[in-house]
Amino acid sequence: MRFVLLHGLGADRTQPLDLVGPVLDGLGVPASDVVAPDVRAHGASAVVGEPADFALDRLADEVAAVARHAVGADEPATIVGISMGAAIGLRICLRGLLPVERVVFVRPAFDDRSLPEHLRAFPVIGELLRESGPRDGAERFRRTEPYLRVARESPAGGRGLLSQFTSTDAARRAIRLVEIPRNRAFGAESELDGLAGRGIRSLVVGAPRDPVHPFALAERWAGALGSPLVRVPARDDGPAAQTAALRDAVGRWLSGS
């Protein structure tokens, strides 16, 4: 069994490796069986491109191609996707791009709407990066309604949004923040209902008080998928507590206990 780990918007491959790498180590999964690609315009990827290049299906095609090259086209796979990575993982499963047997969706943020309210801060950040650059753009963003709405509910969520301004090459890659949130992870919930019929087991992980990754959305994904839903502590209760709970839940599920 090979593992494909997919990061969130504005992050890079180290995010899922840091989060679930210890779980895989504990299960005895060798490093050669783990692939964690950097999505276009993230991490070590030097490729940016045009708006159409940031369609979820285009990103899913690219990620799946990397995974097939790294682990083989016919090798059974487990996907673990965080936020944007969850949406890309879902598209890979729905389109049969890899022979997936299991998938873990961590804090899903995308649904059947283009640019839902909880993702509207990202295009604002992207445009401010283009207009003002990282430092001045961040100062302007602190005064916007999208930032203030998130920060009031979750200071950790507000800090997460501000971190987009300090990510590597943020201004040149701003297009990712403008275009990716316009994508839909699925067209209708009936699409998710078909995943189990394909023999793909799934787990959804969500957290309360996370305005960018609403717990209600995790509930919606789990209900439509017919999958278990794990509720982990809020980031504002301490990231270490959330990470520990997530690792425990994912490790138990992957081991079948």
From TrEMBL:
Report which superkingdom the organism of origin falls in. Bacteria
Q: Is Hydrolase among this UniProt entry's keywords?
A: yes
What are the residue boundaries of the AB hydrolase-1 domain, all occurrences included? 3-233
Matches recorded under SUPFAM superfamilies: alpha/beta-Hydrolases (SSF53474)
UniProt keyword list:
Hydrolase
Q: GO: which molecular function terms? A: hydrolase activity
Entries under Gene3D superfamilies matching the protein: alpha/beta hydrolase (3.40.50.1820)
Q: Where in the sequence is the signal peptide annotated?
A: none
Q: Name one Pfam family in it.
A: Abhydrolase_6
Keyword Aminoacyl-tRNA synthetase on entry:
no
Name under which the protein is recorded: Alpha/beta hydrolase
Q: What is the lineage of its organism?
A: Bacteria, Bacillati, Actinomycetota, Actinomycetes, Micrococcales
